[in-house]
Design goal:
Radius of gyration: 15 Å
Distance between the termini: 29 Å
CATH class: Alpha Beta
Order of helices and strands: EHHEEEHEHEHHE
Strand content: 25-35%
Length: 160
């Protein structure tokens, strides 16, 4: 069942993100990698900035999470992760479909450019990778990230 996450889920959200982010170790440039990948402080800051998390709840246990954030005239998919032991079962796709259905504007998602599996996942769900020039403009306009992260990321778009 997909449900809106609550404050009671914060530790579980952080745990899922940090476990699943291990797949990016060695893919994310070493100067952008953090231990843990997302601290509780950073997660709370993301929520405070308007990221609304949704999760796949299986018998009272969250096994996947994904955030949705309205920024100006677009909707961003943020922090999409599934617990490693539950990957490959369609949880991420179901979350993405549910959140995309809520979007009221053009839908964007950013990911690491070297994470080819993540790019393929979004492409399978109707997203298209944008050219570098447009990527740089979108990242500068809608995300608050370092210039290093901007140069090593990609953006995919779906919709208008």
């Amino acid at each position: 069942m997909i449900r809106r996450c609550t404050d009671a889920d914060i530790d579980t959200i952080g745990s899922i993100i940090n476990q699943a982010a291990e797949a990016y170790r060695g893919v994310i440039p070493s100067d952008c990698w953090h231990e843990p990948y997302m601290t509780r402080f950073d997660l709370l800051a993301e929520i405070a900035s308007g990221v609304n998390f949704w999760g796949w709840d299986e018998s009272g246990v969250l096994i996947g999470v994904m955030g949705l954030q309205q920024v100006r005239d677009v909707t961003l998919i943020r922090h999409a992760y599934v617990s490693p032991v539950h990957q490959g079962r369609g949880v991420g796709g179901a979350l993405l479909t549910a959140l995309a259905d809520q979007a009221t504007a053009r839908l964007l998602v950013g990911t690491w450019a070297a994470a080819e599996w993540a790019i393929r996942f979004y492409e399978r769900h109707g997203f298209c990778l944008v050219p570098t020039e447009e990527k740089d403009k979108l990242l500068s306009t809608y995300w608050k990230i370092s210039s290093r992260q901007r140069e090593t990321s990609g953006v995919l778009v779906r919709g208008l």
